[in-house]
Amino acid sequence: MRVTLFVQCLVDGLYPEVGEAVVALFNRLGLSVICPVDQTCCGQPAFNAGYRKAARAAAKRFIEIFEDAEVIVCPSGSCVSMVRHHYPELFDNGGKWFDRAVSVGQKTFELSQYLVDVLGVDDVGASYNGKVTYHDSCHLLRGLGVAEQPRRLIRKIKGAELIEMRDADKCCGFGGTFSVKYPEISVAMVDDKISNIIASGADTVAGCDISCLMNIQGRLSRTGSPVKTMHLAQLLAG
Predict the structure, then answer these.
(1) Tens of pLDDT along 113-138?
(2) Among 74, 105, 181, 185, which residue carries the largest CB count within 10 Å?
(3) pTM for the whole thing?
(4) Could you read off the pLDDT of 191-220 as tens digits, one per residue?
(5) Coil, helix or strand for 3?
(6) Minimal CA–CA distance to 134: which of 109, 108, 112, 158?
(7) Collapsing DSSP states into helix, strand and coil, what is residue 5?
(8) Strand, coil or helix: 229
């Protein structure tokens, strides 16, 4: 199967190693990978901020670039949720753009969702020595209903021990522009999150959205905690 990789903006701009890990993982699984170099933002920040016109323009570009793909995979639950659920909203007056948006959304998957639900794979031959706890990102859990898939993959990693933290499904406080508009609330939420991470006894916190992990790692670093964050793709590529 030929997989077209949709690279989330933060991965592209700040954490390219996550994208590289996805490619390495797919190569190990014998999958052909295409990464369109002209891809841009899916439009989620504009959509969340209420700029529907700008979001619609970004969505049209995304659809034009990706609609011929056999399957589209992204290492971000929030971006996949945007494409699958909100693109049709942007073109809800019907017509060809609505149909094209629905078609693209139906073949767009988050990484763990694609591995477990589409390929039927939970053991990718990875190894990692450490105690790992998992953070459920909001859009992935509530928007896509993905919770067990990442955990199944982590449990199959040789040498890794999955430890559930308290309130794993609670928001880390990032929320994109939320953390900028409401910094005090955001910090209080991430402080609760890192308290639960540290209390779990894990040395690594994994997740499927780099935005959450960036927020969590920033607060862990500021408190002097040695716990590190890793995207699921990085764990699976090991």
Answers:
(1) 999 999 999 999 999 999 999 999 99
(2) 74
(3) 0.95
(4) 999 999 999 999 999 999 999 999 999 999
(5) strand
(6) 112
(7) strand
(8) strand
Run of H or E residues at 164 = none
Nearest C-alpha neighbor of 6 from the set 104, 153, 122: 104
Q: What's the rounded Cα separation, in Å, for the pair 58 and 186?
A: 28
197 burial via Cβ count (<10 Å: 0-12, 13-18, 19+): buried
Distance of CA 81 to the CA centre of its chain: 10
Per-residue burial over 17-55, b if 16 or more Cβ lie within 10 Å, else e, is ebbebbbbbbeebebebeeeeebebbbbbbbbeeeeeeb
**DSSP 3-state assignment of 206?**
strand
Q: CA 17, 19, 25 angle in degrees (round to 5)?
A: 100
Residues with Cβ within 8 Å of residue 166, at least 6 apart in sequence = 196, 199, 200
Task: Give dist(CA 63, CA 97) in Å, integer.
Answer: 9
**What distance separates the 2 farthest-apart alpha carbons in the chain?**
54
